[in-house]
Amino acid sequence: MELGLFSLVVDDYDEAIRFYVEAVGFDLVEDEPAISSHDGTPKRWVVVRPPGAKTGILLAKASSAAQRKVVGNQVGDRVGYFLHTDDFDTDHKRMVAAGVRFLEDPRHETYGKVAVWEDLYGNRWDLVQPALDSPLDVNGSTGTAADFVPTAEVQPSSTVEPGGAFPPTEDVADILITTEQLQARIAELGATITADYAGRNPLLIAVLKGSMLFMADLMRAIDGPLEIDFLAVSSYGAATKSSGVVRIVKDLDQDVKGRDVIVVEDIVDTGLTLRYLLDRLSSQGPASLKTCSLLVREADQPSDVPVDYVGFQLPPEYVIGYGLDVDQQYRHLPYVARYAKA
Ligand code: 5GP
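# guanosine-5'-monophosphate complex -> structure
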């Protein structure tokens, strides 16, 4: 079952359509002549709906004294409706510019970023961007690698152009994650981290060399103060199988004591690298310690290392590009591709 429609009693069809479509940004899905089953009078059947949503709102013109009484006050003075967005800032800005009245500044709650607004009659709505770990977030991707819900299933999206000089097709098979997909997802991660760390000054620690490009894009997607530092570890060397050996090759410049640390990784495979780093960092007394990985590999036995912010879930294939190498090559490809010789 699914919630198909609910009614919002309005004074006038056209002014209600104008508000919900032009100012709020909903689609007008139906606007048909109809006859009232209640008293046989002509009416209109008007349905609006947020773009891409399944549940619609029937804009129902008040036709009795009882109905006129509830216009703008359908649930008393409570917030009656909850509009979810995956990009709060953009929708908030657009709605404010279109004249929607917000009753407060955006605030951060444990369940997400939220602000109350009212419609043309005074019905109250929340605009909410659910936090990544909130039960409200149907697309969420927080948790351990074992229990996160994928935000983006990785599918080969295109084949590297045959005949091009670089990269050679015998090394680089199909592109798994395009530049556009990378940038769109990183913008989402940046918005979430911005909301989660509002009022704080997180220290982002990138694990070299693989997470260099991800770090550069992620930090630019975060709208707030932050600092960065780098760690270099030895992991795979020239082979494409995890050695399980993690060695610090370059240590941090900064002290993490009392800092809100986010470890930025390129890929979590067995989780050995991240586990080692988390143990090491947590012994140095950070105020908080979270992890963000562009990629997490799907595995039969997923690692138990918590990944708080996940970009993409990856099929069990060795990948290169966007920071990831094979024999130090291909880090500069602007996409993530399947390594053909793995
Ligand atoms: P883990 O310790 O989680 O098994 O491995 C993490 C490290 O292994 C990553 O930071 C990365 O350096 C390397 N790695 C794991 N999978 C891949 C892959 O598919 N491609 C590349 N280039 N490196 C990988």
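# post-check
Helices lie at 13-23, 65-70, 88-97, 179-196, 212-220, 272-282.
Residues 179-196 form the longest helix (18 residues).
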